[in-house]
Design goal:
about 170 residues; Conserved hypothetical protein from pyrococcus furiosus pfu- 392566-001, ParB domain; four-stranded mixed β-sheet; 4 strands
């Protein structure tokens, strides 16, 4: 299988006003989480733009840097010939990131270790409540007491507005 590599060489550190967001960008990232990450961990990586300075990937990082008052940004420039190619890279970058999954046990171990440091969970995008949810998910499903549920719901009738089903058996 042959792999096509864009000739990106190294990121160029340029004035931030030399790039601009793509108005067709579909992704709305969590700018506040990225600002926190940059504030704690520093900025690493780069955004990706076409040869004309239109952002393709990294809109949230760009917006976070603007909010922090940065006047420069590291950019990898791609020679993109068509709007179709730009859109495929933009959408693919966001989608393939979302398709990844964390190993819950490994994530819990890492987050609990970070929680013991001076910065705690700062810069990770996680909060203490997220750890509680993660721990609970690893403990397995909650037990369901059908008899207790029936007692609590006795006399209560639920009706589905779409299909008309009723919990009292009338439909």
């Amino acid at each position: 299988m042959s792999v096509f590599f864009h000739d990106t060489s190294v990121p160029h550190l340029i004035d931030i006003d030399q790039v601009r967001p793509d108005p067709k960008n579909e992704n709305n990232g969590d700018v506040d989480a990225v600002i926190e990450s940059i504030s704690v961990n520093g900025f690493y990586g780069a955004v990706i733009a076409d040869q004309d300075g239109m952002l393709i990937a990294g809109h949230t990082r760009y917006n976070a840097l603007l909010s922090l008052g940065a006047d420069q940004i590291p950019v990898l420039f791609l020679n993109v010939d068509t709007e179709e190619q730009r859109a495929r890279i933009r959408v693919g970058d966001n989608r393939t990131t979302r398709l990844g999954r964390d190993d819950p046990a490994a994530m819990l171990e890492t987050l609990e270790a970070l929680l013991q440091t001076d910065n705690g969970l700062l810069g990770t995008g996680y909060q203490d409540d997220d750890l509680d949810v993660l721990r609970a998910s690893l403990e397995g499903p909650l037990e369901f007491d059908e008899e207790e549920f029936a007692k609590q719901r006795s006399g209560h009738v639920c009706n589905c507005p779409r299909c008309g089903w009723s919990s009292d058996g009338s439909k």
